[in-house]
Design brief:
Strand content: 25-35%
Number of helices: 12
Oligomer: single chain
Radius of gyration: 22 Å
Low-confidence stretches: 1-25, 333-348, 373-380
Structural class: alpha+beta
Mean pLDDT: 84
Largest sheet: 8 strands, antiparallel
């Protein structure tokens, strides 16, 4: 580890903001649960009230567009369209459908906003994937051509075609939410991040640009280590790929991005990240690049005025020629597979580090928090959560994940703050990555402390602390014995804290 390098926390999905939280009084952070995931708002404004006003306006716009574009809400305009043969639709829905059809043409069919029937088959799968015959029928229905009357915003839908625009709609919602926030208090800087798709405007406090981190796509954890950083200024970034939303069917994990040609989950690439002027462009292009052959995908990104980075299934990374201009310098020292700690030879005798820790093993923590999924503009009640490892005497070893960027409310996690408060600003990050599920925080600890030094097996404590902006503080400390014996424990939820699953052994 380089001397003087900040201790970035390996947690949550995309952008590193080293100066945002720490630098000035006029940078404020809020969070809320929207669209089934966590949204975070970083606002540079003269007052907290002005920042709240901007965030509230963004949340109102998010809720409005959710009622239009959602594939899940039974009352959404999109769901009504999928029941009609022809319908005059709102400007927002027509804009999203038009963009989806345009990208379908430009990507040679790799992107599609018509995959609703195929997605429904996968969502309904339980013990085995959908059958080949029913997949072929659903794919055939998705290949029908809809009718779009641009003059009158009328959409004609062939029988059997089901629109699903999630791969573009979240980015579109980020764009409109940012516009709504900018119209209120004229914030000097603004970043809106919905589940890893984000767009920024202006400057983050005293910094010249927003620093965004990309996590190791090979590790399906909310605290996977950052392996690349980019600098953004009035730009957007989105990442598509494998992650914590993978479907588990019959004990096997399947990605959620489906090929319009076969209806099967894509496997050639683990992740695709795209930087573009708008979040809608970044979101949809990232999905297309995950499906396309890499050379064609990178060419499409360049022709679209975007920059892209693709991580292939074997870990190889390919980028557009100008991606290097976005790089923000060396990334923090990687952990896990990036450091060669996960890939080991298959044999019966475990290899050990000098510290005695089995080199290919990690403590995996699957925590599910209680989440208030309200849609109110004033809903900032998502829990500020921190998870860390300490020794059996309570001395801190490593912070695993921090959810919530505002130091005013981080301090309400007073047990952790007493240990880490002076270092907290440098440990906060924002990331771009595959969309995560609200309240679910799969994390891992491969046996390193906060200075990236290997630790020995022994007795440790897993600590989970949460607080809410309007009260409610919880804390739980769980003894964990790290040795050479694998284990799996399910810890039942309490009245004020969700369920926890602990797994120690080879990382899957």
């Amino acid at each position: 580890m380089k001397k003087g390098w900040p201790l970035w926390l390996a947690g949550t999905v995309g952008v590193l903001v080293p100066g945002v939280v720490a630098a000035r009084d006029n940078v404020y952070c809020f969070q809320a649960n929207v669209l089934g995931t966590l949204a975070e708002f970083v606002v540079a404004a003269p007052t907290r009230e002005g920042a709240r006003l901007a965030t509230g306006a963004a949340l109102v716009e998010i809720a409005r567009l959710d009622c239009i574009l959602s594939s899940y809400r039974p009352d959404s305009e999109l769901r009504r369209l999928n029941l009609a043969r022809e319908m005059r639709v709102s400007p927002d829905l027509f804009a999203v459908l038009s963009q989806a059809e345009d990208l379908q043409t430009r990507s040679g069919g790799a992107f599609s906003g018509r995959m609703g029937a195929v997605e429904a088959l996968w969502r309904g799968a339980d013990t085995s994937p959908p059958g080949a015959a029913e997949l072929r029928r659903a794919v055939k229905s998705a290949q029908q051509q809809p009718y779009l009357d641009h003059a009158n915003r009328i959409v004609g839908r062939p029988e059997g075609l089901v629109f699903s625009v999630d791969a573009l709609a979240k980015g579109y919602i980020v764009d409109r939410a940012l516009d709504a926030a900018r119209c209120t208090a004229s914030p000097n800087g603004l970043l809106i991040d919905i589940g890893g798709d984000l767009r920024c405007h202006g400057r983050p406090g005293c910094q010249q640009s927003w620093h965004v981190g990309l996590a190791d796509a090979r590790l399906p954890y909310a605290n996977a280590p950052i392996v690349a950083q980019v600098k953004l200024s009035n730009q957007a970034i989105a990442t598509s790929g494998r992650g914590v939303r993978d479907r588990i069917i019959g004990g096997t994990a399947y990605g959620t991005t489906l090929s319009p040609q076969s209806g099967m989950p894509v496997t050639a690439h683990l992740a695709a990240s795209v930087v573009a002027p708008t979040a809608a462009e970044a979101d949809s292009l990232a999905t297309a690049l995950l499906i396309m052959p890499p050379e064609q995908g990178l060419l499409l990104a360049a022709q679209s005025g975007a920059q892209a980075r693709i991580t292939q299934a074997d870990g190889a990374v390919l980028t557009t020629a100008d991606w290097a201009y976005l790089e923000a310098g060396p990334s923090p020292q990687p952990l896990g597979r990036a450091a060669g700690l996960i890939n080991v030879a298959d044999n019966d005798r475990p290899s050990l580090r000098p510290s005695g820790w089995v080199t290919d093993w990690a403590l995996q923590v699957y925590y599910e928090a209680f989440i208030d999924m309200g849609h109110r503009a004033s809903d900032y009640r998502s829990p500020y959560l921190v998870m860390w490892i300490s020794d059996k005497a309570g001395r801190p070893v490593r912070t695993l994940i921090i959810i919530g960027k505002d130091p005013e409310y981080q301090q309400d996690n007073h047990i952790w703050w007493a240990l880490y408060g002076s270092r907290a600003p440098k440990m906060v990050e924002v990331r771009s990555g595959p969309t995560s599920l609200s309240g679910r925080y799969p994390t891992f600890w491969p046996g390193f402390d906060d200075s990236y030094s290997a630790v020995a097996p022994g007795e440790y404590l897993l600590n989970i602390e949460t607080s809410r902006e309007r009260g409610e503080h919880t804390f739980r400390s769980i003894p964990v014995t790290i040795g050479r014996k694998a284990f799996e424990h399910d810890i039942k939820p309490t009245a004020d804290m969700g369920a926890i699953k602990l797994v120690f052994g080879k990382q899957p």
